[in-house]
Amino acid sequence: MGEMVTFAANGGTASGYLAKPASGSGKGVVVIQEWWGLNANIKGIADRFAAEGFVALAPDMYHGTVTAEPDEAGKLLMALNIPRAETDLKGAVAYLKGQTGGPVGTVGFCMGGALSLFAACNSNGDVGACVDFYGGHPAVKYNWDGLTAPVLGLWAEHDDFVNPNIPTFEAEMTKRNINHEFHTYPGTQHAFFNDEHPEPQYNPAAAKDAWEKTLAFYRKHL
User: What is the CB neighbour count within 10 angstroms for residue 1?
Assistant: First the structure.
């Protein structure tokens, strides 16, 4: 359904997978990868958004590298250049805003969830709604004072990597009167949305509900 495109990013270029609905137009959503890279799963999620009427762009945060090995994925996550990631995300948001004419949504999974919130905190109002699926990255620092978009946080009950951060997220957003909705799915583990992972990680019921909540959130706020 989609195609690879390039876009401007801080004087250079970056690339991503762009999927459009049959109508050719719609609200924009930036879809941000897990630690595996811009793989078929993430492209498929962009396609799913396009099928629901959104214009979806999945930026390639690893610039061509994809892995299916957890050890390598962990190394790639830790090696992510955060300042470059920030410029890539700003470029993706600006490109998609230019395509759609309005504020865009961000959504990400695992590492991408952290980057979704990171992008919303650094968007100067260009992000109109942020969705964070169990996002975490130890090197990402959030500019809470720059956050204006409403946030939907979707968490797993059993997730020692991410869950210690949730009280801080809640406190910082509450302090600034940021509209936020947090949902924790009982009995689930990290990456419950990724249907390429066998159970117990992938949880079909939680994934279905989280998808429906995400679509409703964007349709309300974008």
Answer: 16
| C-beta of residue 55 within 8 angstroms of C-beta of residue 21 | yes
Query: Residue 212 burial (CB < 10 Å; 0-12/13-18/19+)?
Result: exposed
Domain boundaries 3-221, CATH class: alpha beta
Beta carbons within 10 angstroms of residue 59's beta carbon: 31
Question: Residue ranges per domain, the chain?
Answer: 3-221
- State pTM to two decimals: 0.97
Phi, psi of 48 (to 5 degrees): -65, -40
CA distance 1 to 21: 9
* CA distance linking residue 68 with residue 73, whole number of Å: 7
Report the chain (222 residues): mean pLDDT per 10 consecutive residues: 93 95 96 97 98 98 96 97 96 96 96 98 95 97 97 98 97 98 97 88 96 98 96
